[in-house]
Structures are given as C-alpha cells and as structure tokens.
Amino acid sequence: MPERIVIIGLGMIGYELINKFQNLNYDVHIITRGDKGYFKDTPKYLLDITNREKLFETITKINPDFVVNTAAITNVDLCEDERELAYKTNALAPGYLGEVCRDLNIPLCHISTDYVFDGGKGNYTEKDSINPINYYGWTKAQGEIILNNLNYEDTTILRISVPYCFSPVKDNFFTWVLKSLKDSKEINTVVDQWNTPTYIYELTEGILKIYEKDISGLYHFGGGERVSRYEFALKVAKIFGFDGELINPIKSSELGWKAKRPKDTSLNSTKIQEKLNIKLKNLEESLKDLKEMVI
Ligand SMILES: NC(=O)c1ccc[n+]([C@@H]2O[C@H](COP(=O)([O-])OP(=O)(O)OC[C@H]3O[C@@H](n4cnc5c(N)ncnc54)[C@H](OP(=O)(O)O)[C@@H]3O)[C@@H](O)[C@H]2O)c1
C-alpha cells in the first residue's frame, strides 16, 4: 500500500509538493479552499481549514501517514486589512491541525516564514528570538507558538524565505523578474531588503526527506545565499542572458507598501543541512538549474 500524504493548500508550494509526492507514487490527498482545476485525478477536499470540526472530520476520514500544511493568507499587505481572516488562517488553523495530528498520531510539517523576525540582524538561527513587525509575521508567529504549546513531538516547523521556481499557480519574485526582462520591461527592485531565497525544488526534496527520516523540530529552510532583491534580480538577468540595465535599484521606502517590511531576515539554514545531510545551492546554481528547464 502506498503511503498516504495530505497536502493542505494548493498554492505555489502546495502545487510543487503534490507533484513531488505524486511522481514518487505516494497516495496524495489535497485539502484546499477553492478548486482551480489542478490535479483533476487526485482526491480533493474543498474546505476552510479554520473550520475546526470539518478539518477534524476530514483528516480522520483520510487517515494519512503524513500531513503538510502550506495553507496561509500570504499577501502581507492584505493581512493588515483582513486581520481576523489572517489570524484564523495563519494562527488558529495550524493549532487545529496540530491537535488533530496529535490525537491521531500523524507527523505534521508546517510551513512558516522568515517574517517572524524583525530583520534587525540577519543570519537568524532557530535560537534567535522572534519579533514580527507586521501583522502577517505576527499571525505566522502565533501559529508557531500555538503549535509549540501543544507539545506534540511529531511536529516540524520550517521557516522559509522568498520561495521561487517556475509556477503555474502564481508569480513569485523570480518569475516576475524573468518575465519582465524577457518583455524588455524596466523594473524597480529594492537594495535595502535582504533574504536567503528558498529554492522550492530543494524545499520539496527536503520535506520528502523529513518524512522519510522521521524528523521533527524547528528548522530554517532558506537558500544557500543571502541577497537583496536587487542582487537577486541582477543574477536572474546574468544567468538568463538579459539586460541588467532594465533593473533599477530603489529603496523600499519608495514603494509605499501598507505593511512594514523587515530589512534583513536572512536565515541561517545550517541546522537543516546537517540534519538532512544536504548542501543548499547558491543562487547561481539554482538559476542555472531553472534555465536548463526552459531549454
Ligand atoms: N510566498 C512567499 O513569499 C512565502 C514566504 C515565506 C513563507 N511562506 C509560507 O509558505 C507557505 C506557502 O506559501 P505559498 O506561497 O504556497 O502560498 P499561496 O500560493 O498563497 O497558497 C496558499 C494556499 O492556501 C489556501 N488557503 C488559504 N486559506 C485557506 C483556508 N482557510 N482553508 C483552506 N485553504 C486555504 C489558498 O487557497 P486559495 O487559492 O483559495 O486562496 C492557497 O491554495 C505559507 O505558509 C506561507 O506563509 C510563503
């Protein structure tokens, strides 16, 4: 019997995880909110994960070997306006999931974010204190705290940062830069915000290993390199052979975002690399990988 996996959230990361596990012949079941038509032959349960009762009922019925939660309200500015929705989805729902997984003894992997940090220092390890500066980050931090308070030891929390790959679901920073450069469109990218972008194909491979090796705990899963958005965009131009002059360096204060953005939330991902015995790629390596996919 193939092992049964529940992926919650059919967004950018959920999509890639479903692909990954299905290609390896796992019995994948999807829980998400609305049906956008992807994965027509895969069992899909359309529900709002803030509905605790429905969530318990559905997971109990599926009876999986592993649950991964990628569902969240990820629009940082929207979270400032839709506070109740963001709190319920990003903070309360992970708690419900933790409870049901604990009751049924199912390992749970939950995706969190570098935005739980205030960005004052960068190179954050798992031992650093969290101190979010926007509502999105606060709700995600609450999700972690609620999960931790359940003391369910088969829980893994992965903090990721600016995830990127080709995605049929939505644009990410990488695809936005690539499309713009391809169309010879000028773009503005900030010089004063640093991250360690997570290469999604490395993340999905990592989550597979976490399941196979029965790993739990809190881990940073950034990428192998710290860059500003401007430096990231320049690297895309260089590797894909486009004109870097189209990329304008600007300051984040020029963008008029509603929510405050932390300056440097680069993640130190040493712990996960040691645990899984992997070496995360630097941007040049992952972008070359991506380039090969389009040739
Ligand atoms: N994207 C980033 O830049 C970033 C950075 C750091 C961390 N993360 C974290 O990574 C994870 C995955 O991000 P992503 O980019 O894949 O997100 P995404 O593309 O926005 O997908 C989120 C998914 O969650 C679903 N969802 C939202 N609320 C739900 C609810 N109440 N019930 C059921 N499903 C619900 C959405 O459904 P609909 O399609 O119906 O909205 C969507 O399918 C999240 O935990 C996020 O916080 C993301």
The helix content, as a percent range, equals: 40-55%
Order of helices and strands: EHEEHEHHEHEHEEHEEHEHH
Major sheet characteristics: 7 strands, parallel
Terminal residue distance: 37 Å
State which percent range the strand residues make up: 15-25%
- Strand order across the biggest sheet? 3-2-1-4-5-6-9
CATH topology of one domain: Rossmann fold
Number of helices: 10
Weakly predicted, low-confidence segments: none
Structural class designation:
alpha/beta
The molecules bound to the chains, other than polymers, are: NADP nicotinamide-adenine-dinucleotide phosphate
Overview of the molecule:
With 295 residues, this protein is α/β, with parallel strands linked by helices. It has a domain at 4-169 and 199-222 and 267-281: Rossmann fold (3-Layer(aba) Sandwich), CATH 3.40.50. It contains ten helices and eleven strands. The protein has helices at 12-23, 52-62, 76-81, 83-104, 135-149, 173-182, 200-212, 229-240, 270-276, 283-294; strands at 4-8, 27-32, 44-46, 66-69, 108-113, 155-160, 187-190, 194-195, 217-220, 227-228, 247-250. A seven-stranded parallel beta sheet has the order 3-2-1-4-5-6-9, sandwiched between helices. Helix 2 packs parallel to helix 4 (83-104). It is globular, with a radius of gyration of 19 Å. The model has no long low-confidence stretch (mean pLDDT 97). Residues 9-14, 32-34, 48-50, 70-74, 89, 111, 113, 140, 160-163, 169-170 line the site of NADP nicotinamide-adenine-dinucleotide phosphate.
